[in-house]
Amino acid sequence: MKEIIIFTDSTCDLSKDLIEKYKIKVLPLHVTFDNGGQYLDGVDIFCEDVYKKQEELNTLPKTGAINVSEFMKAFEEEYNKGNDIFYIGIGSGLSSSFNNAVIASKEFEDQSRFAIVDGQNLSTGTGLLVIKACKFRDEGMSLKDIKENVEKLVPLVSTKFCIDRLDYLYKGGRCSGMTMIFAHALKIHPIAKIINNKLVVYKKPRGKYVNAVNEQIEEFKKDLPNMDTSCVFITHSGRIDDFDKYIYDELVKYIPKENIHITEAGCTVCSHCGPKTIGILYILNS
């Protein structure tokens, strides 16, 4: 019997339980260390491995997109079974994976069986859209309707992360040495947000790290009247000093505990933002 198969990539940062529950196909990005090996994100390398290798080699890894041939191989398996294919992964402004998925899909004769969506997001910001696609599928929507409904949700996703230190951004060439020194001197723990398909620093709370975390919690509370509370993620990059539990204990005061999911980020967030990065991610209603 024909099915709609939901594909995403390893940057979705969904838990194994959610991936299995919704029967999601996850394709891994690449993680490469100079003189330190090549790996598949979430398959043979995880966040803690990244940190240990960084400390051992004193270098950050490069994260690489899923290539066209990898997409073609994954799509072909389901296409040959007669299934339709829906893909949404890391945003096109953050990786070439989306464009590679589009190129791969064009190699198949029946284009009506493909829906490729630019989620314009990362981490569980993408994960939220993946879960919505799965729910639409399970409600009996057609491939076309799933695509249209998910695309309407893309600009409504709120993705924010507190970043403890700027070392990883600096080493990865994503901020200047002066910016890093300035931030450390003033004890700034920036909050990064996805805006227009890019991850940008949009707030710079000073003082203790908990101040930046509390800033996120306050924004969550302000957004509550206009929030889809059916699924909210607390996603972190490890070495988090129990801030995941701290946030959970606050959020559970406002929404049912079964709607809150704590997940650990994959190597993309870890490589670019470093340890002790944590975010609250959800979809707004309008």
Question: Would you mind describing this structure in some detail?
Answer:
This protein is α/β, with parallel strands linked by helices and 286 residues long. Helices cover 38% and strands 25% of the residues. It contains eleven helices and 14 strands. It has helices at residues 16-21, 47-57, 68-79, 97-105, 124-138, 143-153, 167-171, 177-185, 209-223, 243-251, 267-273; strands spanning 4-9, 25-27, 30-33, 37-40, 62-64, 84-89, 114-118, 157-158, 160-163, 191-195, 198-203, 227-236, 260-264, 277-284. Strands 8, 9, 10, 11, 12, 13 and 14 form a seven-stranded mixed β-sheet that branches. A four-stranded parallel β-sheet has the order 2-1-6-7, sandwiched between helices. The model has no long low-confidence stretch (mean pLDDT 92).
Short description:
The chain is α/β, with parallel strands linked by helices and 286 residues long. The chain is 38% helix and 25% strand. Strand 1 (4-9), helix 1 (16-21) and strand 2 (25-27) form a beta-alpha-beta unit.
